[in-house]
Design brief:
three-stranded antiparallel sheet, 57 residues, alpha+beta
């Protein structure tokens, strides 16, 4: 029988300087994600380039 992979579930997300996110998952794993490359790929994210808007997202 094929194994079923569960989706990771977030417990918390914190905005960091430099358009980064710190994501904490329910299993305790922590991952940091740099959002900068996504701004160039996704025009809909352009408003998040404003640091005040990003910090409140």
């Amino acid at each position: 029988m094929a194994s079923v992979m569960k989706r990771p579930r977030l417990a918390a997300v914190e905005t960091l300087p430099g358009y980064r996110l710190c994501m904490t998952f329910i299993d305790g794993n922590v991952m940091e994600l740099d959002m900068t490359p996504l701004f160039e790929e996704s025009p809909g994210l352009v408003p998040l380039r404003d640091p005040a808007i990003f910090a409140g997202a």
